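Pasting two entries for a bug report.
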Amino acid sequence: MDFSDWHVARARALFTVLAERHGLRMRGADAGPDYLELELPVQYGLRIALKLVWSRDLLLIRSELFTAEFHLDADPDAEARFVDTLDGLVRGEVRLHLFYWPRAKRPYKTLLQVPAGEQWRTIYTWFRWLPWSPVAREEVFVNSRAPHLHVVGHA
């Protein structure tokens, strides 16, 4: 087994453990010598599809609402932060604060936030284009096991 095979096997094991921890189904999407992408589709316990990606020195959580990147070479705690973020998203402990342009279906900016007393602390900021664009609409999304709930309110 060469070095890249070891990393793919480690990433696959990490993604599998995380899916099993939350009782989620996972399906393979794409793999190569230095790339692995597995999908957690919408299902009971997960109301948005997520893709877990490993690419050389990078772990990513992707959805149609955001992409969160964790750089393994630059941050010794990147893997732990990746695990904590995914766990928090699935458990509903991390909320998504979404910002939309007028008439847009997908957000241009998403804040991943955790409770901090009576306020929210941003742990990750993602934006599609300019982060200072005018806000037409804001929504807050929190995952839960209830399949009929989606947006829990406006910010």
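Entry 2 (this is the one that rendered wrong in the viewer):
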Amino acid sequence: MKQPEANRTEFLLRYTRRLAFVCLAGLLPALFYGVLTAWDREGQHERLQLGLLLLSPLILSLGLAWVMVSRKGVAIPSDDPDLQAIAQDEFRRLNAMRAVRVAFVTVLFAQLPLAWLLGLRPSPDSLAHMGTFTCFIGFITFLSAFLFFDRD
């Protein structure tokens, strides 16, 4: 199925935004699961932890299925010139760099409270939890900021 040039570029832009949104939606339950795992030592919220653990792959699977169905049978090869043009677009690169800066500053500001909160927990893996939370906070902040800056 061949699409007109302007429609195809818009279609690919929507496609990449949907993929970013699905990734963001899949990361949030995983972050909440990590928070519950780090602070729930007595096992009071085991059912909620199990639900959050199962929710992330479910959201990712259903979200990717939604993205694939929304393609409507259009093949998108990795060497597609329109996809390459979107990847090389100066406005999108600027938005990505702005999102990286926002994520970096957010991670820097989150380090002190996170270290203080995890230092209160008598846990041998507090360092691993801090590293995981830092990565998740950075990923989520980057995707959120990129989707915010990249809107029309």
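Dev reply: Rendering is fixed now. As a check, the viewer should reflect this: The chain has five helices and no strands.
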